[in-house]
Amino acid sequence: MKYCYSILFLFLLLACTKPQSQSIAPATNQELQDGERYITLNGIRHWVKIAGSEHNTTPLVIVHGGPGGNNYTFERTAGPGLEKAATIVYYEQRGCGRSEAPADPNDYTLPVLISDLDALRDSLGVPKISLLGYSFGAELSLRYALAHPDRVEKLILSSPAELSPANMLVQIQGFYAIGDSTLKTGIEQILQDTTPLETKYGKVWGLASSAIVDKFLFLNQDKAQLNRQLWQESKLKNTGLMAKVYLQNNKADLIPSATGLQTPTLIISGVYDKNGGLHTGLSLKQVLPNSTLKLYENSAHFPDIEETSRFATDVKAFISSR
User: Fold this and answer.
1) CA angle 185-188-192, nearest 5°?
2) Nearest to 61 by CA among 20, 32, 18, 90
3) Are the C-beta atoms of residues 266 and 310 closer than 8 Å to each other?
4) The domain spanning residue 159 has which CATH number?
5) Are strands 88-91 and 129-134 parallel, antiparallel or unpaired?
6) Quick one: CA dihedral 219, 225, 230, 235, positive or negative?
7) Are residue 158 and residue 176 in the same domain, yes or no?
8) What pLDDT, on the 0 to 100 scale, is given for residue 22?
9) What's the domain count of the chain?
10) Which residues lie across from 157 on neighbouring strands?
11) What is the rounded end-to-end Cα distance, in angstroms, of the chain?
12) Are 245 and 106 in contact (CB under 8 A)?
């Protein structure tokens, strides 16, 4: 009888312990291993870099701005802090940074970029991704979430800046506020001509020196110099092709389109953002019911560079929250 009880006890012990050993086995996904690679999405070779895969979290895809920029600076500023807590996917859009350009210079519309982003998600082998977009990348991330709300776990919009007529005026006003007498006179003359607002906008940017642009984009000029240093170090160029297509097709409908989106969203805006990020961030907070807005008192358009530590802390807390 004792022998029978021993056999029964051993059987029950094995039955209880086997599932436990299976449950702690780490999940593996060969597409989410650390390192740089090229992934062909919609026929275009896209540069991708994965870091922090050991955390085995929902991938956080970093969507750069521009239009036409790259992730080189983000990789070296806010990125390392995020890699300590989550699986990070740096991704450069078609024709941007280290990614291949399409043969057709007009093949940069938002629906195409959204399709590329979804193809990336599919190639990673995951049903959902989280998105961290900054500047134009915030708009692209938000439009992806609007197109595929069931495929986005969380959304981080840093300095969201749709290039609408209202934001063009915000930018022109920003340049005027920081300009010297020569720049102010030039802006006044431009505003008096009969050309369309888009033309006036381009002329104002053309008047601004690199020093003025740095003052426009950054509160801390040491951080502006760091940004320029990393630009030069990267040797990556913005061709302007994506921005041209964007301006030709922009409907300036981001705020009404986003109204009611339920995706958990963190909005980060610098108080001194003259590039439209504060204006757009405040507007998005009013229409996104499941959103949190954090204002950065020591930042302009790049909180990820000007307040890197706080930025990383806030993003990590948001993506880890339930």
Assistant:
1) 140
2) 90
3) no
4) 3.40.50.1820
5) unpaired
6) positive
7) no
8) 34
9) 2
10) 133, 267
11) 52
12) yes
Residues of the chain with pLDDT under 70: 1-30
Instruction: Give the C-alpha separation, 157 to 283, whole Å.
Output: 12
Structure tokens at 168: 């063009």
Residue-level pLDDT at 51:
98
Give the Cα separation of 144 and 153 in Å (integer).
12
pLDDT at 290: 98
205 lies in the same domain as 287: no
Whether 244 maps to a domain, the answer reads: yes
CA-based nearest residue to 96, from 147, 41, 59, 175: 41
Q: How far apart are CA 1 and CA 292, in angstroms?
A: 66
Q: Count other C-beta atoms under 10 Å from residue 195's C-beta.
A: 12
pLDDT of res. 163: 86
Closest-CA residue to 132 (of 296, 304, 260): 304
**Are 158 and 291 part of one and the same domain?**
yes
Name the residue type at position 72: Y
Neighbours of 263 (CB within 10 A): 22
* Maximum distance among all Cα pairs of the chain, rounded to whole angstroms: 103
Token pair 């907070």 in the structure block, residue: 285
Which tokens hold the place of 8? 């029964």
**201-211: burial string, b at 16+ Cβ within 10 Å, e else:** bebbeebbeee
Reduced to 3 states (helix: H, G, I; strand: E, B; else coil), residue 8 is: helix
Looking at residue 288, its amino acid is L
Length of the chain: 322
- Whole-number Å distance between alpha carbons of 265 and 110: 21
Judge whether 39 and 99 are in contact, CB under 8 Å: no
pLDDT value, residue 29:
59
